């Protein structure tokens, strides 16, 4: 009878240990993911579809209407200086980048193209996409070429990274936009 009691105690300890590991994993995943990802299911995008831009939030983020739902899009591979993050303040050339994006996108229709090497959404639930106007104008590329944005890599390289790094490098050489003297060339 003593042998059975000892074995039962071992099994109870193992079960408690497994339960603690599962609880820890669940807690980590739950609290490390923004709540917006849990609350809102992101609609699938069709890369052959045109979506109306309803609002530009800043130089690299805007909203579109997909299936009667407003969805936030973050342009893939670029980062413009901040204009809306209260923790960071307005970055040098941020207002110009935001204004240029508004000028180009607002009330237009865009095609959103995802990159197979990246997640479809970022940690904030925003769709990550290359953004094209109806006439094929590639806004991510334009913002880099004219110094409104810098190249930005997420966790892994994306398909157009080399092209984007070259565009950024050329803008730096020409001292264009945020690479000009107004921002100290940084």
Q: Mind telling me the CATH class of the largest domain?
A: Mainly Beta
Secondary structural class: alpha+beta
Radius of gyration: 23 Å
Report the CATH topology name of the largest domain. Answer: OB fold (Dihydrolipoamide Acetyltransferase, E2P)
Largest sheet: 5 strands, mixed, barrel
Q: What proportion strand? A: 15-25%
N-to-C order of helices and strands: HHEEEEHEEHEH
State the helical fraction. Answer: 25-40%
What is the number of strand segments?
Answer: 7
Poorly predicted parts: none
Overall number of structural domains: 2
Mean pLDDT value: 88
CATH architecture annotation name of the largest domain? Beta Barrel
**Main sheet strand line-up:** 1-2-3-6-5
Question: What does this molecule look like?
Answer:
It is a single chain. By secondary structure, this protein is an alpha+beta fold. The protein has two domains: 2-32; 42-181, OB fold (Dihydrolipoamide Acetyltransferase, E2P). The chain has helices at residues 2-32, 35-39, 94-105, 139-145, 161-174, and strands at residues 51-58, 61-66, 69-75, 78-79, 109-113, 127-133, 150-151. It has a five-stranded mixed β-barrel. A hairpin with a 2-residue loop joins β1 and β2. The radius of gyration is 23 Å and the shape is elongated.
Structure described in brief:
The protein is α+β, with helices and mostly antiparallel strands.
């Amino acid at each position: 009878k003593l042998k059975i009691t000892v074995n039962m105690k071992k099994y109870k300890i193992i079960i408690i240990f497994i339960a603690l590991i599962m609880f820890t994993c669940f807690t980590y995943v739950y609290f490390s993911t923004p709540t917006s990802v849990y609350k809102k299911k992101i609609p699938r995008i069709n890369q052959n579809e045109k979506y109306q831009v309803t609002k530009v939030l800043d130089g690299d983020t805007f909203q579109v209407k997909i299936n009667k739902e407003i969805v936030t899009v973050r342009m893939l591979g670029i980062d413009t200086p901040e204009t809306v993050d209260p923790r960071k303040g307005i970055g040098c050339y941020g207002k110009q980048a935001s204004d240029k994006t508004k000028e180009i996108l607002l009330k237009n229709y865009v095609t959103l193209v995802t990159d197979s090497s990246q997640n479809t959404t970022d940690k904030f639930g925003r769709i990550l996409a290359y953004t094209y106007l109806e006439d094929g104008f590639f806004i991510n590329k334009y913002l880099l070429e004219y110094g409104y944005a810098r190249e930005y890599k997420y966790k892994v390289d994306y398909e157009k990274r080399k092209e984007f790094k070259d565009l950024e490098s050329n803008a730096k050489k020409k001292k264009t936009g945020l690479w000009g003297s107004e921002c100290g060339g940084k």
